[in-house]
Queue: 2 jobs
Job 1
Amino acid sequence: MIATPTTKPHTGKDYLNLTLTATDKLERSPNQSLLPLTAKINDKDHLEIGGCDISALVKQFGSPLYILDEVTLRTACSQYRDGFKTHYPGESQVIYASKAWSCLAVVGVIASEKLGFDVVSGGELYTTEKALAQLGDSSQEIAEKIYFHGNNKSVEELKQAIEIGCTIIVDNWLELETLTQLGNSQSGSSIPILIRLTPGIECHTHEYIRTGHLDSKFGFDPNQLQAVFSYIAQQNVLDCRGLHAHIGSQIFERQPHQDLAGVLVEWLKIGSESGLNLRELNIGGGLGICYTEADDPPSIEEWVKAVSEAVIKACQRCEIPLPKLIAEPGRSLIGSACVTAYTVGSRKEIPQLRTYLAVDGGMSDNPRPITYQSLYRVVLGNRMSAEMTETVTIAGKHCESGDIVIKDAQLPQTHPGDILVIMGTGAYNYSMASNYNRLSRPAAVLVNNGEANLIVRRETYDDLIKQDCLPQRLLP
Ligand SMILES: Cc1ncc(COP(=O)(O)O)c(C=O)c1O
């Protein structure tokens, strides 16, 4: 790993690899960098991202604030896209797992990099479709770009997907039968589907984000696949294009995805022998990113190369043509592109035990630490060269003792009003945010070349009560 310090950092500066030239930094694999690729320290000793001073951003847009670096996001997109072009001779498509962060502007940036989209709910589907339509895509282009996932899609969601014409990734028998009924009751063309299977592959990641082992709620058990293929072969209304599996998230090993390629290609062959025209293979997402200097994921290109070679080899072994290869990364596309800026507030010192430093957000804008015990790193954004002289626990402001952003963080002496910048918050932060304790969800800005554009406005108190209803009979 080249992007992060391997020894304990002494100042915020150590998180920027200052020995690299600006061009070297932009060629890095974003998932191997703790800070966004454009991170710099300016002459005020402030952290700058996308040419924007973090303190100035907080002054302008408030705190907490998600700051999304367009260059880092675009670099990750192009490394995936170009990686497949280089290493996979067949057709390929990279689709962004919208669950990592779905909003109109994120769709806009990613669509302009020619990626497609994986969505998992009617809401994500709606957001993506609306953004693509506003960006000028035709309905056929929109249909071709979207893949719809989910282990319990409602009939309404399935109808919405059929109306849009996107590919539906079928997860279970109920869905398969419902789609057949819906297809038979309409006069349109056949419904494009992929079949999701549980490949029985273990990987070393948190139990909650592991999905490929047999005891998983997602996808068909391999024992059922032959029956699934026979069923689909009899349904004219279903166009089964291929297979999908996703084994988990935040994975640093290459072997599980290589094993997965072998398993999927074998099933592709069996499905084709059952009379289906299987021509797509979706390998899921899962490549990890650096949240701390101890994390050591392969680069995007290394991962793409490993997966491509495994698919090519398996196809040669099974003597089948190369399928269209699809990957659907989320975290490794957007995770490292964003930081969250918080403002320091109160402090509680418990002698010989712990010092708590409270910030103005926490588990409502980043539920990952309390959900998965996830680790993060922090810098003092308004004094990047200050020596890290103390160990403090950064606490959120919610009424939960477990609302801890970072336990035992290294920081310089801080004062109320200082800006703490948590790195690697692009994935599964905004998208998992809540209004717990009726906190308003923060604003998000997209930064590039010294310009900051609001992409999600901060919720107001009025937003918080917008959906509430006060029954008449409770009124005086
Ligand atoms: C089906 C599916 N595809 C893709 C992803 C994206 O995974 P990651 O963000 O680890 O790349 C997920 C994440 O949960 C998923 O469930």
Job 2
Amino acid sequence: MAHSDVAAGTAQLPTSPHSVRQPVRIGLVGVGQQSREHLAPALLGLDTARITAITDPDRHTRNRLADRIGVPARFDSVEAMLAEGVIDGVVAACPPQAHEMIIDACLSAGLPVFIEKPPAVTTDALTQLVKKATDAGIPTAVGMNFRWAAPVMRLAELLANGRYGTASVIEIRHMAGKPRTGLWGLGLWESFLLAQVIHPVDLLLTLAASPVQQVRATSRLATDGGVLTSAHLDFDNGTVGTLLASTQAPRFEHRIEVTTSTGATLRLTGLADLTITGAPGAARDETRRWHPSPMDAGFHRTGFQGELLGFCDAVTTGSGFRPSLADLMPTYHVMDQLATPRRQQ
Ligand SMILES: NC(=O)c1ccc[n+]([C@@H]2O[C@H](COP(=O)([O-])OP(=O)(O)OC[C@H]3O[C@@H](n4cnc5c(N)ncnc54)[C@H](O)[C@@H]3O)[C@@H](O)[C@H]2O)c1
């Protein structure tokens, strides 16, 4: 049953007050699968952005996308692109070691940068980049698209407006089928954290909206090559978070379940279907449902378009973007506290 207080709020993209201004000239860096399938199409759908340069050391890869979308300025390195002065901001999706180098180069050049997750390999490297960005006063953005997915924004909005009370327990189940081997020259455990676990940890911290007090975790390396971590987080505001993430699922499966102080349960399944049971004033068995609009099937629903629109606004206005590099620090601190996995007997 659709109910007005839940159904009315198809989460809106942040509106741009700058649509009459020139589009932000974007240099797209690293045009592998993520850029080709998500970032480039999302940018092409924005009237506030124009891809004016493409950089990738792989000539075939960069020419393939640049030819397809008609971008004449092509570079084999970020340094070469930055030297040309044809862009206002950088959007990058590369291996994390390259992310560290690209962020550093953009900050040295005074250019805002949007970097896909993970922004860095280690907490130490991220700390240094945060310091450099803060000193330079340059906007930075990390591509944590789950935060910007329309149904997640709706859930966060319902928790923030207090209609259902405050979050007592937040449970996130993030089950993936990969990675089964190390990525980016890293071990399997680091790859699992940086490719998968970073998403639910960041979501848990975002929805709890409070500093973490304590983390207790158990992790396993299964005999079939799968990895699993189960964590319990206590937050300063009294919220309890639980997280289960694994690479042992046949296909991607995601669920967020929030139990609130009024006894309501807000459940988001598959980052798409939001249901609320036990809402104050509702009949005992009544379930309220919220779905993204049928018109909202693409990059807005998955968060890619919203985050890139937000980044373009940050470039135009010099204002902040969430999450910035600094916003990822608590996420990295939690990942550092997830126990090194024990091998399953
Ligand atoms: N937000 C999400 O849900 C999501 C999903 C998939 C991937 N990603 C992230 O996107 C990034 C890229 O993933 P992918 O699947 O496209 O990988 P990919 O291997 O398909 O593409 C990476 C590209 O980066 C290029 N590259 C490497 N070093 C470079 C450098 N120094 N300068 C410029 N280009 C360089 C490579 O040549 C390659 O074309 C990863 O960090 C990954 O974690 C995020």
